[in-house]
Specification:
Length: 108
């Protein structure tokens, strides 16, 4: 169940960060509300994930997966295209997430 909460936290965080661009400095109310609710939901989900996983593992996975998700969403939604070097860095993040997942130092 911790993994589900972790993924929900990543999704909420990513939605929040992608909506942040549309707030126009928090002058646009609908995206502004999405940002605030997204952050609140993300922390609630992460708190639940931490009941069954170590804090460091949850935080590392959350941060890495959120970076990748926000980058993918911004490419689709805002047409922000990144160069090959940036995508290579994202691949390293994904590999790191995979290595953490395969490690014996945390419980599933």
């Amino acid at each position: 169940m911790s993994w589900l909460f972790l993924f929900l936290g990543v999704a909420a965080e990513a939605m929040s960060h992608v909506a942040l661009k549309a707030t126009d400095g928090f002058t646009n109310p609908i995206p502004s509300v999405l940002v605030l609710l997204g952050h609140l939901a993300a922390f609630m989900f992460l708190g639940q994930a931490m009941k069954g996983m170590p804090i460091g593992i949850v935080h590392a996975l959350w941060a890495g997966l959120a970076v990748i998700t926000v980058t993918l969403l911004s490419t689709v939604i805002y047409r922000q295209h990144l160069d090959l070097t940036t995508w290579l860095g994202m691949a390293f993040v994904a590999i790191g997430v995979g290595v953490i997942n395969l490690s014996q130092g945390h419980s599933h």
